[in-house]
Specification:
Low-confidence stretches: none
Largest sheet: 2 strands, parallel
Radius of gyration: 14 Å
Number of strands: 2
Number of helices: 3
Oligomer: single chain
Shape: globular
Length: 89
C-alpha cells in the first residue's frame, strides 16, 4: 500500500501542471505523518483547479479529528458550490 501511495504522490507532483479537474485539498497543520508543505505547494501551484485549506491544530485525518464537523461542512459547501456553478447538467 505504501508503495502505491508513494508512486501516486510522485506521479502527481511530476504531472501537476496537467491537472485540469477541480479538487478540494485540505491538510492538518499538526499532521506528523505527512508534511503539509508538499500538499500546499501542489494546491497553490494549481489555483484555477484546486481549492486549498490548511487546518491549524488538526492532525493526519482532518475529517476524523476534533474539527471534523467544520472540515466536513467546508468540504460539502465546496461540493455544493461546484454543482451550482457547473456547466454540465
Amino acid at each position: 500500500m505504501f508503495a502505491a501511495i508513494n508512486f501516486g504522490a510522485s506521479y502527481l507532483v511530476e504531472h501537476q501542471s496537467e491537472i485540469k479537474l477541480s479538487g478540494f485539498v485540505f491538510h492538518g497543520q499538526s499532521d506528523a505523518i505527512i508534511d503539509y508543505k508538499a500538499t500546499m505547494k501542489l494546491a497553490l501551484d494549481n489555483p484555477d483547479y484546486i481549492k486549498w485549506k490548511l487546518w491549524e491544530g488538526v492532525f493526519h485525518e482532518a475529517h476524523n479529528d476534533l474539527e471534523q464537523k467544520e472540515v466536513i461542512k467546508e468540504w460539502i459547501d465546496w461540493m455544493i458550490h461546484k454543482i451550482k456553478t457547473s456547466k454540465v447538467i
